[in-house]
Amino acid sequence: MIPATACLLLGAVGLFAQGEQAFKGQVIQCKCSPGSSDANAPCAAACTKKGSTYVLYDAKNKASYQLDKQKKSKNFAGQYVFVIGSLDQATNTIQVDDMVRTLPPKVMQAKSVYIYCDGCVRGMAKAKPAAFEQLTAWNHFTVVPDPHKADLIFLFSANPYLGDYVTRDGPDKRPVEISTTYMNVVDPQTGENLWGDSREWGSLLVGKATRDLIREFADQLNQQNTLDAQQ
Question: To the nearest whole percent, how much of the chain has pLDDT over 70?
Answer without folding.
Answer: 84
